Amino acid sequence: MSYTPYGGIEKVWKSRATEVLAPGPAGTGKTRGILEKVHLYLLKYPKTRGLIVRKTRASMTESVLVTFESKVVQVGCDLNNQSRRTRSSYDYDNGSVLVVGGLDNPDRIMSTEYDIIAVFEATECSEDDWEKLTTRLRNGKGPYHQIVADCNPASPSHWLKRRADRGQMEVFECRHHDNPVLWDRQAKDWTEQGRKYLATLQSLTGHRRARLLDGKWSAAEGLVYPEFNTATHVVAAMPAQAAQHRLWLRAPLRLPVVGHRPGWPDVALPRDLPDQANRGRACRHHQPLQRRRDLRGDHHRP
């Protein structure tokens, strides 16, 4: 199956910048275009190492890897030596290797070096994840090192948008016209599949329509914390016992210390308590703190 990049993806292919971002609406062909570039890089430059990654390894199996195996790989790479669910890498005939990973298991992917890295659905990742990956671009077998990512736009305050606005990344916007599955360049019209898919996106509302159809970095309506990211800020529920935090003080300290003692009632501590060595003192939560202090400064004072 032949492939020709268009629009934003064509610019991604030509770029040799260290950090590259390809944002755009849903269905613009970003993922395939980036996979095609990584595959071509590994074929063209023997003994190079690539990494394709998402926030979790499990999310790769039925998304990125399906595209790679069914649409990208034609020659030069062994697809039969491992199952897709447990695959850790693809071995190329010329000695190149493409590693498959997830940022939920960073030790394996962070312990080696790469020439090219592709991050998919990059809005799921943190800037800390991204910067750690940049430190792995040091294999030195290819003519240039690059980390490239795709994403659908998120909040205007997302770290990816801010990083791009600071000029730390080359950014190439992708559009639906870039995808030959949706847009017939010879007829200069939408394909039948393109019409159906755009109709689906046009039925969306609010920030989902703005992001997935129009490709805009748009905040959700009524959002209080625009930086909120479910991948980063949502954790599994804790047992009720583990969630009960307490404030307690051990004399002769004069400042509140956060701690936990099962069975204690919720408390707030006044600024000064009598100096009783080796005895903890606490008061009920309805008693206000007499004075608010900056612990970062006061705990160093005599």
How would you describe this structure in keywords?
3-stranded antiparallel sheet; disordered C terminus; 2 domains; 15% strand; Rossmann fold; 302 residues; 7-stranded mixed sheet; 11 helices; 12 strands; alpha/beta
Structure commentary:
The structure is a single chain. This protein is an alpha/beta fold and 302 residues long. It folds into two domains: 7-212, P-loop containing nucleotide triphosphate hydrolases (Rossmann fold); 235-302, no CATH class. The chain has eleven helices and twelve strands. The strands form three sheets. It has a seven-stranded mixed sheet with strand order 3-4-2-5-6-1-7. It has a three-stranded antiparallel sheet with strand order 11-10-12, with no helix packed on it. The termini are far apart.
Ranges where pLDDT stays below 50 over 5 or more residues in a row are 266-302
* SS-derived structural category: alpha/beta
Task: Label the overall shape.
Answer: globular
Per DSSP E runs of 2 or more residues, the count of β-strands stands at: 12
Rg over C-alpha atoms, rounded to the nearest angstrom? 26 Å
CATH C-level name of the largest domain: Alpha Beta
Relative helix content: 25-40%
Q: Assign the CATH architecture of the largest domain.
A: 3-Layer(aba) Sandwich
Oligomer: single chain
The structural domain count equals 2
Main-sheet strand order equals: 3-4-2-5-6-1-7
Q: What average pLDDT do the residues reach?
A: 83
| CATH topology (fold) name of the largest domain | Rossmann fold
Strand content: 15-25%
CATH H level, superfamily name of the largest domain: P-loop containing nucleotide triphosphate hydrolases
Output the number of helix runs.
11
Largest sheet: 7 strands, mixed
Q: Roughly how many Å apart are the termini?
A: 74 Å
Order of helices and strands: HEHEHHEEHEHEHEEEHHHEEEH
